[in-house]
Amino acid sequence: MNSLTFEARHKMEEDIHGVADIVEETEDFINQKINEMQKAMVYTHGNHKMAWDRAVFFRPFLAHDKPLHLMLLRATRFDAVRAAQSLVFRFEWKRRLFGDDLLIHRITWDDLRAEDQAMVKSGFHQLIIDHDRTGRGTLYSRLCLRDMSNPVVFYRSSYYILETLSNYPEIQRKGLVSIGDCRGSWKSSFFQIIKVIGDEKQAIDKFPYHNATSHLIYDDPKMDAFIKGIRAALDREHRMRHRFHTGSNLEIDYSLRAFGMNLSDCLDVNCSSGPMSTSGIEEDIRRRVKMDEEWRRLEAPYRDPSSRQALFPNPQDIILGHNRKVSQA
Question: How many independent structural domains does the chain possess?
Answer without folding.
Answer: 2
